[in-house]
Amino acid sequence: MSDGIVRLAAVSRTFRMGDVNVPVLHDVTFAVGEGESVAVVGPSGSGKSSLMNLIGLLDRPSSGRIFLEGVETGRLSADRCARLRNRRIGFVFQAYNLLPRHSALDNVQLPLIYAGVGRAERRRRAERALDSVGLAHRAEHLPTRLSGGEQQRVAIARALVTDPGILLADEPTGALDSRTGSDILGLFQALNATGRTILIITHDMSVAAGCGRIVRLQDGRVVSEDGTAPRAMAEASA
């Protein structure tokens, strides 16, 4: 297997709170292989959100190195990180983060606007992304006219529309009832089955159980990893 689509090497993060340094991550090392489905789990305060921000290039580590598709991100300018984030990482959030006065189709097109894609191509790709999550028929609806599960599907379509290397989901079922949450997890599993790389940040072990590998955080440290081997490794050994 290669180094992975995402690789963290001895990553630590410390925040300055007044006159006090507060460490939240300590020497975190793990990789996500292409085509893997990985859950990062841990209780509140374990460092999951800080880790997500680092992997998503929304923050930089205090020490250690992070690689995305083989590129060491710490060497990149803020503008280059923003472009890489826009094109190679798809984000799905617990709160959906949809613009309430814009249709589902318009919400899905947003990353393409930032990427400079032309209007006709934006619409074509956004329609295709909505169709891939089963919501082509709701393209012109405002978020307020959609159920929670439908809003999350729009958010997933928005994350997919740039064809990112990795889909990064932060508590994607946290705001949903159990049945709708199960449907969303099924969608992630279907996407993974097509070769899409999935990384889910969650505190819920029932969510993590649907992933191929589980990385456990406790007090900012990786305390265990278990699950199936990455697909690329399994194929190489077959």
Structure description:
With 238 residues, the chain is an alpha/beta fold. It has one domain: P-loop containing nucleotide triphosphate hydrolases (Rossmann fold), CATH 3.40.50.300. It contains 8 helices and 10 strands. The protein has a 6-stranded mixed beta sheet with strand order 6-7-8-3-9-10, with helices on both faces. Strands 2-1-4-5 form a 4-stranded antiparallel beta sheet, with helices on one face. Helix 4 crosses helix 5 (148-160). Residues 228-238 have low confidence and may be disordered.
Keyphrases for this structure?
238 residues; alpha/beta; Rossmann fold; six-stranded mixed β-sheet; four-stranded antiparallel β-sheet; 28% strand
Structure, briefly:
Helix content is about 35%, strand content about 30%.
Radius of gyration: 18 Å
Helix fraction bin? 25-40%
User: What is the tally of helical segments?
Assistant: 8
Biggest β-sheet, characterized? Answer: 6 strands, mixed
Q: Which segments are poorly predicted (pLDDT under 50) over 5 or more consecutive residues?
A: 228-238
Strand fraction: 25-35%
The overall pLDDT average reads 90
Structural class: alpha/beta
Distance from N terminus to C terminus (CA atoms, Å) equals: 13 Å
At the fold tier of CATH, the topology name is Rossmann fold
Return the CATH architecture.
Answer: 3-Layer(aba) Sandwich
Secondary structure: number of strands: 10
CATH class: Alpha Beta
Topology order in helix (H) and strand (E) letters = EEEHEEHEHHHEHEHEEH
Counted up, domains total 1
Strand order of the largest sheet: 6-7-8-3-9-10
The CATH H-level homologous superfamily: P-loop containing nucleotide triphosphate hydrolases
